[in-house]
Amino acid sequence: MTRWTVTFQDAPEMTKIRADKARRDAHIAYVRGRPGLQIGGTLALRPQQDFPGAIWTVEAETRAEVERLVVKDPYYIPSLRRYSIHNQGQTSAVQDMLA
């Protein structure tokens, strides 16, 4: 299994999307239902700032699997959210035992 980091850069208009409770609930359910998505969270450069993006850590076999996770997320709107995917490498048996 390979570990990946996904960073998202959001347009300012994403604030309205994040404020939509139904979409937020769908996003949270989506993320929680994906065991390969190990860590997710918003990025903020200072307290009380609107979130300029987010970051995920994902375990998946291929980059294509990670991309599918991204584009099926209810928060993904191509015109408002850009993303980049970076390979962190193979997870080892030791890492798996510690998890």
Written description of the protein model:
The chain has about 100 residues and is of the alpha+beta class. The chain has one domain (about 1-99): Dimeric alpha+beta barrel (Alpha-Beta Plaits, 2-Layer Sandwich), CATH 3.30.70. Helix content is about 35%, strand content about 35%. It is built from 4 helices and 4 strands, in the order E-H-H-E-E-H-E-H. It has helices spanning about 15-20, 20-30, 65-70, 95-99, and strands at about 1-10, 35-45, 55-60, 80-90. A 4-stranded antiparallel β-sheet has the order 2-3-1-4. It is globular and about 35 Å long. The chain starts with a strand and ends with a helix. Residues about 90-99 have low confidence and may be disordered. It comes from Parasedimentitalea marina. InterPro entries: Dimeric_a/b-barrel. This is YCII-related domain-containing protein.
Total of helices = 4
CATH homology superfamily name? Dimeric alpha+beta barrel
The major β-sheet equals:
4 strands, antiparallel
Give the tally of structural domains.
Answer: 1
Unreliable runs: 92-99
Order of helices and strands: EHHEEHEH
CATH class, please? Alpha Beta
Q: What is the SS-derived class?
A: alpha+beta
| Computed Rg | 14 Å
What form results from the Cα inertia axes? globular
The separation of the N and C termini measures 14 Å
**CATH topology category name:** Alpha-Beta Plaits
- By CATH, the architecture is named 2-Layer Sandwich
Number of strands: 4
Mean pLDDT comes to: 83
Share of helix, binned: 25-40%
The side-by-side strand order for the widest beta sheet comes to 2-3-1-4
**Strand proportion:** 25-35%
